Each structure stands twice: as structure tokens, then as C-alpha cells.
Amino acid sequence: MSSRLVSLFTLAAASLVLGACGGDNDGPDLQNPGAAWPPAPTVTAHRGASAVRPEHTLAAYQKAIEDGADIVEPDLVATKDGVLVARHENEISGTTNVATLTQFASRKATKTIDGVAITGWFTEDFTLAELKTLRARERIPANRPANVAYNDQFEIPTLQEIIDLVKRESQSRNKVIGIYPETKHPTYFKSINLPLERRLVDTLLANGYRGKDAAVFIQSFETANLKELRGMSDFRLVQLLDSPANAPYDFVAARTGRTYADLVTAAGLKEIAAYADVVSPYKEIIIPRTSANELGAPTAFIANARAAGLKVHTWTLRPENPFLPVSLRAAPATSPSQRGNAQAEITAYLDAGIDGFFTDDPAVGRAAVNAFTRK
Question: Which long-range contacts (CB under 8 A, 24 or more apart) does 23-29 make?
């Protein structure tokens, strides 16, 4: 099936979903709540409730909604036939059972993704029908051994299936639940003639989301595709920022010599504000760690972002020991799966002034926000 036929099929299916969800004006528009959305501080479920269910599964997104997330976050990659699906990476040997399936052994390949040679199995080499025969597995079992019990139970979801879930849950709860898709490796996918941007925008529009009024943020670690997205829609856009020593791959591909260090400055944030609504830095850009691996003093990043007119969402706040400052870890501190005092770390970022955050455990995130707002 051609990518155009798949796109038309997706649009038609989305229209049917819209009709099933109701299009009357009797109640609030839970998909397009307007400029006052989202509530702040905002709890975004990073890949779903990925601390308690295998990431990027409908079960993880469902659990995130049950645990009080305001928004769920799918990372998006493309299939061979042009369908957007949720995986952390297009290489899927670490998050599915594909390596155990003899019928796909010949699909193993080595590719260069964003300048790095990677060997494995890639979504763009599978049709959606083929991907649907795979089952999800826990990506970091040493940190999340309880999630291993869910291995091989869940399919890889499409973007449309995630939207359908969000719509159903929004309606049943009479609550706005947002969606925060990330375009993964956009320069790479464009290079293999599977660009993500138009597919994403068309799917959102077909499902009734309307630009800046919509309960939608679109994010990327690259800059060029966000500028392209700004030209084709007015959905809220988010510039992700990695560690300053790293660089957006579109900068690397264009040989600009620039890195994220150029974007975290006051001048860089003003540059971002020309095309994005939110900036989302790695958490240590906001609160660096000390030499003893404790939380240090907040930097001027939030103040500079505010001066540029940007909201600030940070990533990623996780509950297990290795991701926490030393003093917030649970005994034994060396255990990779022990869950420490993640609420205290989240509270430190709330105190620093963030507008929202990504968390792998939205139940802890919700508890932290509830306690913070009661102060």
C-alpha cells in the first residue's frame, strides 16, 4: 500500500473516530481547551507511566491517565508504509521481541542514525502489519524488573490508537488529557523519504485538534523541523535541549559548528522563541548537580526563558536510585531498581519555577504537584 493511501486511510479512520466521540457543542471542547490550558505545573507522562509499565504501550498510557497525568507523551517513528508509531527509537531490538522471531532474522541491519552506526531492527523496514506481530518488552529491566512481567503482552501502538485512547479517557472523565508527540530523528526520516512532519500534522488535524487551542504540544531535539512545523501549523511547539556539549543533528548535518550550548544562552532562547512556544531542557541545565551528585543552585535559565517569552518544561524526572541525587536514594543506595524520594526532586524543580515536567511515574508527579499547590 502506498504512503498516500495509508495517509488517506488514516484520515478516513480519524473522521470516523471523531463522529464516534461526538462533535456537538453541548459541553466543553476537551480537545481544544484554549490558551488557558494546560494547568500548571503540568504533569507529562514520559512515554506513559513507564516506571510501572513497558514504555510506549497503550497500557503505559492508560496507567498514566489513571495516575493523574495531564498529558501523555509518545515518541514517533515511521513504518515502511508511512504510519506513525510510538517507539523511543526506530531501532527496536531493545523494546520488542523482534530478535527472537526467526521470520525477521534477515531484517537485522547496520545503519547510521544521526551519525552513529547502530545494528538491529528498524521500524522503517517493517510494514505496520508486520510490526503488529511484535510485542513490547521493558527497555531497562535492571532498573524496572517488575515491568518484565509485562513483556510480550502489548502491541506497538500507532499514533491514531493513542489519540483514540486519549479521546475515550477524556470523554469518560470529562477531563482534558493532552498529547505531547516527539518527532524522533526527523533529519534521518526525511533522508529516507519518510518525513514525519506532514504525517503528524495531518493526523492531528483529521482528529479535530485545532492549532494553539488544542491540547497538543509537538517537540523535537532538532530545530529545522520545528521551523518547518511552524510553517505548516500553529500547534504549540517545544524545543528540546540536550546537554550543552551535544548538538541538534540538523546542526551537525548542516555543519554549522553550533551546539546546544548556543541555544541555552539568553540570546539562544530568544532565537528559539521565534518559532517555539516552550523550551524543554535536560534537568541539569536548570539545576546542576554538584561534585557530590547532589542538587546544586538553580541557574538563570528559567529567568532567561521567561524574558524570551518561553514556558519551561524539563525532562526527565525518574524514581529509581541511579537517576536521583545521592541524598534522595533509598537503601541500598547502589541498587539500580530501588525507588528513592523522587517527589523531593520534583519539588526542587517546582520551587525553581518550572511550568511543567516529564516524569516516568505520573503518580509521584501528581502527588508532588498537589503538595506544591497546597503550600
Answer: 23/208, 27/174, 28/174, 28/176, 29/213
